[in-house]
């Protein structure tokens, strides 16, 4: 079997999304409706790899900037998405073809963020081996914290106390259908503690929730009818990722976020295997925020890594 590489164009949209739904490491973030909500911020340069019958066997979400190919700057991660029938030796060939194709487009470097294996529906780490074969450099490694929901995770004593306190104070947890309703809490916390804004604004997150109602869920902890803590999850069939967690001053006093996280875990335990809290690193992975990771670990979470590699294409003849 022979393969070829070409750049994604708008006419490939249906084919892209159809392939995505059946590949072995699918994630809804790679659906074109999700990728294109911020199309104005990035120069899309996603790739299709097809066989000799013009059937897609792999896709690679990406963008380019200053002669660098990124997989994809607008996404948390985003490596090759691969057909289940592709063997390791064939993938190595595909990876080499992609390098040559990008080199021909005057791309000098690949910045590559593999999809963490907790998001794989079937083993899919051929890309890590191909990176090794290409003398890729590990440029960044972040620690994320995950709970195996059905594997007897344990809360710390302090966390159990916090959950009980929130209940005694009358905090109630519920699912919210319109994300922008909790954006005030999220904006407040990001501004106060990180001098930052949410990655998504109110219009964007409401749009994405409407497009992906089964994949994006929003929960609020309320006290006397007011939102005092919020959780936004990005979900696949088996993994629930807490994209946003925030608690107001009153919420922190009442330990509302402890109760809300417990509520989310219980809600998703009927269908998911893993809850992933996301990374606790700063400074390109070199600084570990111990306070942040301790909070996640007090729910029973333990570490996985999110990696970032670079491949130098200038050495290709």
From TrEMBL:
Task: Provide this UniProt record's keywords sorted from A to Z.
Answer: Transferase
| One MF term in the entry's GO annotations | transferase activity
The cross-references to InterPro entries, in alphabetical order and at most eight, read:
Acyl_CoA_acyltransferase
Protein name listed in UniProt: GNAT family N-acetyltransferase
The species is Acinetobacter larvae
């Amino acid at each position: 079997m022979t393969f070829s590489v070409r750049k994604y164009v708008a006419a490939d949209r249906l084919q892209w999304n159809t392939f995505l739904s059946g590949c072995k490491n699918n994630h809804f973030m790679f659906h074109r409706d999700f990728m294109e909500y911020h199309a104005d911020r990035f120069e899309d340069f996603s790739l299709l790899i097809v066989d000799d019958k013009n059937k897609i066997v792999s896709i690679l979400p990406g963008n380019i900037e200053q002669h660098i190919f990124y997989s994809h700057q607008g996404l948390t991660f985003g490596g090759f998405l691969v057909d289940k029938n592709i063997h390791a030796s064939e993938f190595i060939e595909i990876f080499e073809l992609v390098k040559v194709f990008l080199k021909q487009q005057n791309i000098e470097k690949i910045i590559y963020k593999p999809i963490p294996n907790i998001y794989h529906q079937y083993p899919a780490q051929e890309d890590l081996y191909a990176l090794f074969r290409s003398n890729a450099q590990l440029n960044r490694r972040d620690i994320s914290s995950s709970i195996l929901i059905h594997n007897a995770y344990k809360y710390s004593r302090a966390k159990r106390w916090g959950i009980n306190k929130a209940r005694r104070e009358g905090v109630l947890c519920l699912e919210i259908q319109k994300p922008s309703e909790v954006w005030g809490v999220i904006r407040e916390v990001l501004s106060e503690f990180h001098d930052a804004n949410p990655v998504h604004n109110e219009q964007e997150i409401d749009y994405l929730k409407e497009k992906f109602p089964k994949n994006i869920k929003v929960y609020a902890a309320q006290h006397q009818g007011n939102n005092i803590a919020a959780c936004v999850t990005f979900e696949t069939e088996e993994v629930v990722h807490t994209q946003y967690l925030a608690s107001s001053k009153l919420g922190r006093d009442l330990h509302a976020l402890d109760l809300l996280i417990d509520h989310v875990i219980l809600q998703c335990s009927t269908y998911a295997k893993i809850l992933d809290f996301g990374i606790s690193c700063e400074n390109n992975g070199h600084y570990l925020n111990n306070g942040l990771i301790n909070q996640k670990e007090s729910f029973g979470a333990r570490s996985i890594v999110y990696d970032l590699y670079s491949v130098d294409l200038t050495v290709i003849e």
